[in-house]
Design a protein that fits this description.
323 residues, two-stranded antiparallel ribbon, single chain, membrane, EmrE, transmembrane, Multidrug resistance efflux transporter family protein, 79% helix, transmembrane helix
């Protein structure tokens, strides 16, 4: 239950991204700087945290030893995740981007066969390819149905361009985030804690952001002071607080694709928080009856994920004691 609670709390801070990115776009800010500055601002905060904890040297040593692993999966998990989300915010409202982002719930389950579970037998450790968690996938579909209901009436007012540019990039982000996160989690094993892993991925993704910033300077020039301040808020709320909370939750479920799917499903809370944020901050349209029904399904799906995940955890504890 602690992992689920951390996941829901993370979804609240993640929702700040969707609302403020949309606000920055409406005020004339470039999606490029919304993406780049978040990770530029994240780096020093995380660096200080890891240095104070005395864990910086082993992390930097591992990055030097395995640069391609860190650069590759960090670019996927952070670069190909956040840049498309910011691009989508330039063409669609916060609720649309936040809703489409929930595809990551199903994406996380579908990616299970790309990973292995280590089990201990009389012959030693054995790696078994993980299977798609069927129950978790069904529960995730309940959440997605709720997302569809939330957007049922609003989506009719969208243009083809808004759907194309506001949806397809988010699909790329939805698969990139869990893939990069899980691959780096597997690569790090027990060597690094959450703070080290987030810092390592942030540093390793910087070459991607440097290239994108060069594109931003060439196309739109430097960011405004207003966008810089708003991006700093996003970096602290979503980049530091939410990312650490979410990665801490996923670390608690390491090695169990079922519980991991349950934690990833908590991110559906972003839709509700983003919808509330858009109403309060951006003065968006008030939710319809269908929207409230959809929110009910989202909450139900998260509760079921939590209940079944906890039940599986208890059964695993009983089996361990018997063994």
């Amino acid at each position: 239950m602690k992992a689920i609670a951390l996941g829901i709390l993370a979804s609240f801070f993640f929702a700040v991204t969707f609302v403020l990115n949309r606000a920055m776009d409406l005020s004339g800010g470039s999606w490029i700087w919304s993406a780049v500055l978040r990770f530029v601002f994240m780096a020093p905060f995380l660096l200080i945290i890891v240095m104070v904890r005395g864990n910086l040297k082993p992390l930097l040593s591992d990055i030097r030893k395995r640069p391609m692993i860190w650069l590759g999966w960090s670019t996927v998990g952070f670069g190909l995740f956040y840049a498309p989300l910011c691009f989508a915010a330039a063409y669609g409202p916060a609720w649309l981007v936040a809703s489409m982002w929930q595809i990551t719930i199903v994406a996380g389950s579908l990616l299970a066969p790309f990973f292995y579970t280590v089990i201990h037998t009389e012959l030693g450790q054995q790696k078994i390819r993980s299977s798609i968690p069927t129950r978790g996938l069904v529960l995730s579909l309940i959440i997605l149905i709720g997302i569809v209901l939330i957007q049922l009436q609003q989506v009719q007012s969208l243009t083809t361009k808004e759907v194309l540019y506001g949806v397809l990039p988010v699909l790329l982000a939805a698969f990139s985030y869990p893939l990069g996160n899980r691959k780096m989690m597997a690569a790090c094993g027990q060597r690094f804690d959450t703070y080290q892993r987030v810092l390592g991925m942030t540093l390793a993704s910087l070459p991607f952001w440097i290239i994108l910033s060069a594109l931003g300077i060439a196309e739109v020039g430097f960011p405004s002071s207003n966008q810089t301040i708003q991006t700093l808020i996003v970096a602290l709320s979503s980049g530091v607080i939410a990312t650490i909370l979410f990665f801490s939750a996923t670390d608690m479920t390491k090695g169990d694709v079922h519980k991991l799917a349950a934690v990833e499903a908590t991110q559906s809370g972003e839709v509700i928080f983003a919808l509330i944020g858009e109403l309060v901050i951006l003065h968006g349209a008030y939710p319809t009856l269908w929207s409230f029904a959809g929110m009910g399904l989202v909450i139900l799906g998260m509760i079921l994920h939590s209940v079944f995940g906890q039940g599986k955890l208890l059964r695993n504890g009983i089996n361990t004691k018997r063994a």
